[in-house]
Amino acid sequence: MKKILLILGISISCLVQATENFYPTTAPKFEVPEIGSGVGLIDQQKEKMIGEKVYRQVQHQMPIVQDPWLEDQFMLVFSKILSQTQVGTPIGLVIVKDPQINAFAVPGGLFALNTGMVTSSKSMDEVVGVMAHEIAHVTQRHYSRSQEAFKGQGLLALAGIIVGAAIASQADGDVGTAVMLGTQAALLDKQLSYSRNQEREADRIGMQFMYGAGYNPESMADFFETMHRSTSRLSFLPDFWFTHPLTTERMSEARLRAQQFPRVPFNQHQQDFEIIKWYTAAISDQATQQQLDSLVQQKSYAGLLAASAYHLKQGDYGKSQNYLNAASAIDADHSLLHLLQADIYLGQNKLEDAYNAVISKQRIMPENRALGYKLAEVYIRQNKGKEAESLINRFVSKNKMDVLGWQLLQQAANLDKNNPMRTVNVLRYRSEAQYWSGDEENAIKSLLHAQRLAKENNAMSSRIEARLKVMQDEQKMRI
After folding, report:
1. Nearest to residue 158, comparing CAs of 107, 113, 197, 193?
2. Gap between the Cα atoms of 299 and 83, Å rounded
3. What is the Cα–Cα distance from 443 to 433, expressed in whole angstroms?
4. How many folded domains does the chain comprise?
């Protein structure tokens, strides 16, 4: 079965700054209609719990791209759109390694992008169009407002459909299809007939968000046409695709609506998007050697960086370095170039060279998560656990769902051989990494083990007990 979903992760609170960005000049905000007072605080709290539960399930089932630099680039754009809304801190944004064109959102502010959506786009404005559409679904709380159509089944049943689709997308046979049968399939059928107007509303409000953030609303209509051409070539479309029904009428409406906005100045950051697009293609196995060779022959900076990443992924450090040298001759200051250089040196166990490759850039941009984590990785390889922990905690303290951060903290804590709480801390950090990766059962086991070892330390025991209770309560919440 063809994969059809894309799902989410990295909190808005871990936003970083970068010298490369896609922020055009902002334009005035539009008024977004009120959705009424029928949904209160309690329901919003439920949405957050459901969103986090789905996040863990998705992390466990889907091939999530864990690349801090790429995550950071999309979070920068994502936050620009969110600045046009009144949405609080969302659960996060996740990039899914999937060549199909798709994006999705779930209750509580969980958003996802497929790598195929990025590699199929012609500009960042097109990606923003899809992001804005999904954000509009959440700001208008379409899932919450669908409860009446679901006749009391509620948000958790709806979230179950999403997770069922995530499982189905990973299956090659009837096992995945079976997940969508029965009650969930019946609920989905109800949602399809109900969601047509919600899709139009998300298009309209999403365009307002785009324009307010300085992006071209016509790019949303452009990308709809790209999607239509892509899906028309498929002989079979899974039912879940139609949660975003794309009719000829809707495409025409989107085009007419977009043309009513004042013209947006041309985006001057196309090369930045090309770097993101081809880097995404290289690390998600969507770029061929022939495609990269063609870009390299054109002396494309984006192509050279992507080719370096492509060969680095294959463990060919010599070729990766050659392409990086050629890129450096064009622009030696790009943060992705520094990160790739550090990875080449780490692959060759040249730790001091790896440190020198990243430290100068990281000192200039200490708030940059990608550079911070790469420097922490170098510190861990150099057995400098304290330095690594100090770096990592800056980001994990802002984003409890940062799986990579917890994994790095676990490695760093293991180096602290003189700390009597060393094993306890390793188990605590491992537990968090397991938990937010969706392995709730083993996460609880790790924390129980830590609790037994920390029984003589009252402060640590209390801390572990409180966290354990939350994990156990949330594990009981079934989808």
Report:
1. 107
2. 37
3. 8
4. 1
Angle subtended at Cα 26 by Cα 101 and Cα 281, rounded to the nearest 5 degrees: 25
Residue 236 has pLDDT above 50, yes or no: no
Residue span of the structural domain in which 230 resides: 12-258
94, part of any domain: yes
**Is residue 86 in some structural domain?**
yes
Q: What is the pLDDT of residues 357-375, one digit of tens each?
A: 999 999 999 999 999 999 9
Full 3-state SS string of 359-409: HHHHHHCCCCHHHHHHHHHHHHHCCCHHHHHHHHHHHHCCCCCCHHHHHHH
DSSP per-residue string spanning 195-235: SHHHHHHHHHHHHHHHHHTT--THHHHHHHHHHHHHHHT-S
Residue 65 belongs to some domain of the structure: yes
What's the pLDDT tens digit per position in 292-318?
999 999 999 999 999 999 999 999 999
- Can you say which residues are annotated as belonging to the binding site for Zn(2+)? 133, 137, 199
Length of the chain: 479
Which pair of tokens denotes residue 166? Answer: 């995530």
Binding site listing? 133, 137, 199
CB 227 within 8 A of CB 101: yes
Q: Which residues are catalytic?
A: 134, 203
The pLDDT of 412-429, averaged and rounded, is: 96
For residue 200, how many other CB atoms are within 10 A of its CB? 15
Lowest mean pLDDT among 43-57, 120-134, 437-451: 43-57
